[in-house]
Amino acid sequence: MKRVTIDLHADPITLTAALVDIPSVSRDEAAVTDAVERALREQTTGFEILRHGNVVLARTHRGLPTRVILAGHLDTVPIADNVPGRFAVGPAGDQVLYGCGSVDMKSGDAVFLHLAATVTDPVHDLTLIFYDGEEIAAEFNGLGHIERDLPDWLTGDLAVLGEPSGGWIEAGCQGTLRARLRTSGVRAHSARAWLGDNAIHRLAPILQRLADYRAREVDIDGCVFREGLSAVRVEGGVAGNVVPDAAELDVNFRFAPDRTVDQAVDHVREVFAGLELSFEVTDSAPGALPGLTAPAAKDLIASVRRHGGGGVRAKYGWTDVSRFAARGIPAVNFGPGDPNLAHKRDEHVPLDQITAVTGMLRSYLSGTPA
Fold it and tell me: Which pLDDT score is estimated for 369?
């Protein structure tokens, strides 16, 4: 395999492009992990460098009063004819970098790596974690493996995930719950449908409950989280001339972080109370409270606002901030790029956002007002 080299001292825009050009679809992250580990060992000073599978850790031990964790996943969704990356003028007329992972989240990784090599006198001890398997099932998530096998790696006072946030601080995250609702009936020939009981038709009142559902909005630490309950999959039918005797519907509940998973399950059960169905929870993950009142988080917010960043808003969706929140560590999402462009064929990140996020984090980590 060809040795890949990245330059952490290069402009983070250039570094982003270099990372995009290293294919790293989930379960195939070895090449990019090797490049990141080698660069951290050869181009940074004062860091302890460790590796566990395809997870790389770099941390300082300066004895400073606070520790900030910068964490980013190295994997991407499958490539869609968008590697290598290319610079171009974007739809808004600005200069952008197109490429798989440019938004989610190699631009965030590039910012963190560049700062590790160039912030020489941080006011916080630093832990950087670059991990694999975030874009696929939770069992493959490298950060989850660290949480299980090496939990001391996750010790800190604030965690910053480099997830795309358009230069805003996106605090906390929603919890997620998936449930499978099943209906049953009696199979019959469709020419004599009255002899059967159509299980698909029995989904109608379930779908009506979903159509009538009004999502709750809740303000936590000034961040407004809007919940959502949606049908995401439906299955039923045997053949074109058979009244089906079974059907099932998957629903996904994205809930505000003031609910626990158990409370979310109870709520979804209540929505469908009184209907004839079976109910099975197939997947769940808790949300994360914003944690913006922690001193380290307040300092980050002040630095971002001082440098013209987008301020603070709630994170819609689930991210690995939940893992840190569960450990009592305030965590936020902060990185370049529009999250709405993640995973798209035309995924692209504005170059000025990479520069701006780098500057805001540099000021925060250095404790400088400018």
Answer: 60
SS3 339: helix
Could you tell me which residues come within 8 angstroms of residue 262 by beta carbon, excluding any fewer than 6 positions away?
none
- Find the catalytic residue in 37, 75, 227, 338: 75
pLDDT score of 133? 95
pTM summary value: 0.85
**Does the annotation count 125 as an active-site position?**
no
Cβ atoms of 321 and 158 closer than 8 Å: no
Q: What is the pLDDT of residues 320-351, one digit of tens each?
A: 998 998 898 989 999 999 999 999 999 999 99
Residue 75: active-site member: yes
Chain centre distance of CA 305: 23
Question: C-alpha dihedral over 291, 296, 301, 302, to 10 degrees?
Answer: 140
> Whose CA is closest to 332, among 366, 285, 290, 367?
290
Catalytic residue among 132, 134, 163, 227, which?
Answer: 134
- Cβ atoms within 10 Å, residue 243: 23
Is the backbone peptide bond immediately before 84 cis, with ω within 30 degrees of 0? yes
Residue with tokens 């805003």: 168
Distance between CA 342 and CA 287 in Å, rounded? 21
